[in-house]
Amino acid sequence: MSEEENATAGTSDTEPVKTDITEIIGSELIEKSDVEAKESGNDSNSKTPMNEKAIVEADFEFAVEEGVEIDADSLAGLKNFSIEHNLSKDSAQALLDHLISARSKAMEAQKAANEKAIAEAVKKIKADPDIGGSKYDEIQSAADRITLKYGGSDFQKAVSDGGLKYEPMFLRFIRNLNSSLTEDEVISTSQTRKSGPKEKTFAEYAKEFINNDT
Q1: Of 68, 78, 52, 59, residue with least CA distance to 104
Q2: DSSP letter (8 states) at residue 48
Q3: Pick from 36, 25, 88, 97: which is nearest to 60 by CA?
Q4: What is the pLDDT of residues 21-79, one digit of tens each?
Q5: Residue 128, by phi and psi: left (phi above 0), alpha (psi -120 to 50) or beta?
């Protein structure tokens, strides 16, 4: 037998790796349910429930802790899964609790990773001679002002939440844009003062008031 055939033969009986938490937890609960069914004399593959009172039915309601957000479609899907696989009510509730806990831990881990990434990005930006140091706060303020003025509050929030405020390339763009806008404002104001009507003196205003009064 060739090396390739040996390699194939060695992996042909290997079970596929389970990566989805629903699949992992669900399969364990299904196996447990099957064992319970066989011990009670009812095979889980049959449509005869092992215990009419313990099996999940159409009117079953999951217990969800206050403050936990989970959409109705997900609950309906989990209920159908539980009914299809003949899960007991305790097993179905345990499955939901496991999924909620896993989701919460994943969200916390993601939040911690994001905060770490932002802290590292800010550290690098502040060390940049062009956009860091004393310029950092000024550029961040300019980013908030420019995105709000020209994009609106939703755009400003998207830029902030999306992490663009911690991208060196974006901050250089804001620095250059802010500098250009400031120069344009100065030029525009200067031209208005030169071309606009001459401001009246106090004596001229007084003379005009006296003439109008008489």
Answers
A1: 68
A2: S
A3: 88
A4: 444 444 555 455 455 545 544 444 444 444 444 677 888 889 998 888 888 999 999 99
A5: beta
Burial class (CB in 10 A: 0-12, 13-18, 19+), 177: middle
Supply 9's token pair.
């033969």
d(CA 183, CA 186): 5
Are 93 and 64 spatial neighbours (Cβ–Cβ below 8 Å)? no
Q: Which residue has the tokens 């250059």?
A: 176
Tell me the torsion sign for CA atoms 36, 38, 43, 45: positive
What pTM value is reported for the model? 0.52
Question: What is the longest distance spanned by two Cα atoms in the chain?
Answer: 122
Nearest by Cα to 79 from 54, 101, 96: 96
Q: What is the pLDDT of residues 77-104, one digit of tens each?
A: 999 999 999 899 999 999 999 999 999 9
Residue 161 has pLDDT above 60, yes or no: yes
CA distance 62 to 121: 43
CA distances from 90 to 21, 78, 176, 192 (A): 18, 13, 62, 78
